[in-house]
Every structure is written in structure tokens, then in C-alpha cells.
Here is the input.
Amino acid sequence: MKAARLHEVGKPLKIEEIAEPTLRSGSVIVKVLSTHVPPFTHKVISGELGYALPEFPFIPGTSAIGMIEAVANDVFDLEIGQKVFCDPYIYSTTIEAKPDAILLGWTGLAEKSSRIQALWKDGTFAQKVLFPAECLTPLGEAESIPVEKLACLSYLNIAAGGLNRAPLHFSQTLVVNGATGGLGSAAILVGLAMGAAKVIAVGRNKEQLKTLEQIDKRVIGVATEGDVESDSKAIAHIINGGADIVIDLLGGVSKPEPTLTCLNALRRGGTAVFVGGVNADIPFPYSKIMLEQLTIKGSFMYSRQIPRKLLKMISAGILNLDAIQVNTFSLDEIETAISKASSSKGLEYCVVVPNQSYK
Here is the structure.
């Protein structure tokens, strides 16, 4: 089969003919129909993010939409020919042991993650990939949706995981911090589908905020300038009584001010969920958290049930994907896809279809 492999940090991926994955206990071989190229893929491959990569050479790539080609004899209720969403989050479940986890084809997440990476090494930038059976969710009625567009589930799931952690209830006011990024824009779509009465999209890109406002009349953009006091007032001006939920999806920001601005928007009893990649401590007053009975939570990835729920929402028309724009590339165009993804904003996705040719 054909695959894009990384042989050395900082070097381009090489398109190579390699052996197909071998079926083993608890696994499924999936033909990759589409795979999302995250905007920061170039930083993973260059080593800039310092991720705990698998042993070289390996195939990068995380989630995918695929078709089952082979099923181990100890795997039940999954069938050859079935279309599935493939979740890259693989973790140990040993009782009383410290959890260990990886993102397939991406990074280790704990001290001893190399043990799992040795078993599940290669990701989705290939024509076929081996996944643990528990990572697969059948598409069900969503099979009629183009697989290129369904590749966006990678971000919709993460956003939904954070909103579910809050949890967000219908009729509530939601503030999305980092709204103009891929994850932030995904959170807007999911928040609307979950019944938010008002979604405050916070970011710096004014043009992108205007684009997000066109999705639904409930979306209101607030462009921030970097000053906590003035930005907090700008958000408070359009929220009557404060926000029920703040979800922070900022990328590699090195300052606490953008997060503090949105925390100030919380009403008494409100909840903030941290989902992004802020590289700074957040100096938020102890007394404010106590007296206003605020809740601050962290959220990483999502439960195994989230993809199934979102697929049902998509097939029912509750979660509308019309605003998503997809740039599609063949596997041979992987470097072009990575470059394009690095400049993508909002609901623009770059997707690779390893078993088709796009020119």
C-alpha cells in the first residue's frame, strides 16, 4: 500500500510503498477514505511542539473516516464493508494503574506511552490503517454525508467533549474563546446544535468573526484587542447577566490575558472549560471563584459516545455542516495539504483522501 512516512524530525514526509498492516487480536484494518490534516501538522513534523513521537519511521495522521476491510476473530458487531469514524485516542484501562494514553500516529501522552505506541504506531496518512476495535464508531445513517466533510468530526468531537463536560444546556449563553480557529469554530457549530440561546464568538480576526456571524443569528462576534479591562467590557456589553459557559479553545497562546477576559464574562455559578493549548498560568482571583461559585474544568478529547451522538445529530440535520469548507488532496499531495492547513482559518478544513487522486 501507499503511505506518507516521517523518517526524521524536520524532514518532509516520504510517499512510499510499504506492506499493509497485519491483523491481530482486538484489531480492525480500515481503508482510509478521508483524514483531517490539522493546522498545526507542520509543527508536529518539524519537532517544534516537542511531541513524543513514535519510533521512526512512522506514518503520521490521527482520525479518519474509513471502510472496514478486515476484522479480528475476537471482534464482534463490526463488519467488513462498514463505514466508520476512527478515533485516535488509545488508552490503558488497567484497574488502579496510572492511565497511559497516546494519539495514534501523533504523540504519547504519558510517561510510559511508548509501550502503547509500540503496539499502535502508524496513523492515517496511508491507504490502510490498523485500529483497536473500540476506537471505531459506525457512521450509521450519516453514511450519506460526503466522507470529505465527515473528516471534520475530528474537531467537532473535541469541541463536543468540552461542551459536554460543562455541561452546556439548551437556552444558555455560551462564550467561545478562540472562535476563529478550527476548534473554536467547531464549538460554535456544536453549541448551536445543542441549543445555546446565544453564542459569543471571541477572537481577533474581525473578518473571520463576521463570517461566523453569518452561520446563525444567535452568533455574535466580539473582536478583542488584548487589554483585559476593555475587552471584558466589550463582552459584558452584549451579555445580559453574564455567560453560563465559557469554553476556551485558544491555541499555543503564551499570555493569560485572552483567557482572563472571557473568565470575567462568567455569571454567578457559571462554568469555564479549558480545552485549548494556552502556555501560561491563569492568575484568576481565589475569592472571585469562591464568592461567585464558579467552576473551572479541563477537557481532553472526548468520551467514546460523543462520535455516535454527533453522527446522529448530523444525519438528523440538527448539526448543520453546510458552513464547512473542505480542501481535498490526494496522498501524493500531502506536503501541499500540510502547507495549506497551516494557513486555514475557522471552518476551512484540509482533508487527504489516500485512495483517490485529486488534481
Notes: The chain is about 25% helix and 25% strand.
